[in-house]
Design a protein that fits this description.
The protein is α+β, with helices and mostly antiparallel strands and 192 residues long. It contains five helices and four strands; from the N terminus they run H-H-H-E-H-E-E-H-E. It has two domains: 88 residues; 75 residues, Alpha-Beta Plaits, CATH 3.30.70. Helix 1 packs antiparallel against helix 2.
C-alpha cells in the first residue's frame, strides 16, 4: 500500500470515525449517568476511552501529519451531532409535560386521558385571568405525541418539558407493539 494513501487518507479516516464513535458513546454515557444507570455508565466509559486512546495514539504517532488534526476535530464535531441524534432516537427515560392554558381544558384533558396518559390538573390564576395547569409524566418517546395533541386542541397553550430522573408508579399508554419495545441497558439497572 502506498504510504501517502495510508497517511493522508486511511489514517485520517480512522481517526475521524474513531472520534465519532467515542464522542457518541460519551454522549450516551452522560445520559445514562443522568438516569442513574450505575452499571451501564462504566461499561460505556470503558469503550469510550479505549477508542479515544486508539485515536489519540495515532495522532501522537504521526504528530507532523496535520490532516490527522483536522480529522480529529471533524470527528469530534460530527460525534456531537450524531450523539444527539442517537439520544433522540433511543429517547430513554421520562419527561414531565407541564401545560398551562387559559381556555377550557376539558377537551385536552379528555384526549390525553383517553390516549392513556396520566393527567393531573390544577386550577391556576395567571396575569390574564384563570386557567388550568395540566401535568403529565410521559415516556420521552411519547413527548411528540403529547405536544401534537396540545397543538391540535389548544394551540395557544404554554407548555414546558423537564426530564425526570426517578418516578414511582404512574399511568402510561400501552405500547403500540407490545413485546417489541427495546429497553436499552434495562438489564444493567439495579433492581431490574
Amino acid at each position: 500500500m502506498d504510504i501517502w494513501v495510508y497517511s493522508s487518507v486511511l489514517l485520517p479516516l480512522f481517526i475521524f470515525f474513531a472520534r465519532i464513535a467515542d464522542v457518541t458513546l460519551g454522549t450516551i454515557r452522560i445520559i445514562v449517568v443522568n438516569r442513574g444507570m450505575k452499571f451501564a455508565a462504566p461499561i460505556l466509559g470503558f469503550f469510550e476511552i479505549l477508542i479515544w486512546l486508539l485515536a489519540i495514539g495515532q495522532i501522537f504517532s504521526n504528530i507532523t501529519n496535520y490532516v490527522n488534526y483536522i480529522a480529529y476535530a471533524a470527528g469530534f464535531a460530527a460525534g456531537n451531532y450524531i450523539g444527539i441524534l442517537v439520544e433522540e432516537k433511543i429517547a430513554m427515560g421520562l419527561s414531565v409535560v407541564r401545560i398551562i392554558t387559559q381556555r377550557d381544558a376539558a377537551a385536552l384533558i379528555g384526549t390525553l386521558r383517553s390516549a392513556g396518559y396520566g393527567v393531573t390538573v390544577m386550577d391556576a390564576q395567571g396575569t390574564t385571568g384563570p386557567g388550568k395547569v395540566i401535568f403529565t409524566v410521559v415516556r420521552r418517546k411519547n413527548v411528540p405525541d403529547v405536544i401534537r395533541k396540545v397543538h391540535e386542541i389548544s394551540p395557544k397553550a404554554f407548555y414546558s418539558l423537564e426530564d425526570v430522573r426517578y418516578a414511582a408508579e404512574g399511568t402510561f399508554p400501552k405500547a403500540m407493539y407490545p413485546g417489541h419495545e427495546i429497553h436499552l441497558f434495562r438489564y444493567l439497572r439495579k433492581g431490574k
